[in-house]
Specification:
4 helices; single chain; about 35% helix
């Protein structure tokens, strides 16, 4: 197989991040490839139901569950997900930490932003 410059291939067992819809920023696993525009995903450990989803709504991660059979059931996907500690590997990645930091900043109140501004001003004056 010619790989070229792409490092992340669409394959069964590839862990994906959902970037649109009600399950935004949740992890799921590609269970089957439907066609060139859609894949069947499942995320029993993250609360994502088994559903076909367009590649436009998915972002491929570097994480892969090796040896996951095509059209694996929900229990098999859950076992493989937990066995490979996908959630732990994802939490350690810089990508996940950046998303978490964005979420924290988005949830700040007006007063919290004011306090941060004052601290930044104090640091910059020194």
């Amino acid at each position: 197989m010619v790989q070229g410059s792409f490092k992340r291939q669409v394959e069964v067992g590839r862990v994906v991040l959902i970037n649109h819809g009600p399950d935004t920023n949740k992890l799921a696993v590609i269970v089957d490839i439907i066609d060139h525009k859609r894949a069947l995903i499942d995320g029993p450990s993250t609360g994502v139901s088994r559903q076909p989803l367009s590649y436009k709504r998915l972002t491929l991660t570097n994480l892969v569950i090796k040896g996951l059979p095509r059209n694996a059931g929900q229990t098999a996907v859950k076992k493989a997900f937990e066995k490979n500690d996908i959630a732990g590997s994802w939490a350690k990645s810089a990508w996940a930490q950046k998303l978490a930091q964005r979420q924290v900043r988005a949830n700040l109140s007006d007063f919290d932003r004011f306090k941060i501004q004052k601290l930044k001003n104090k640091v910059n004056q020194c």
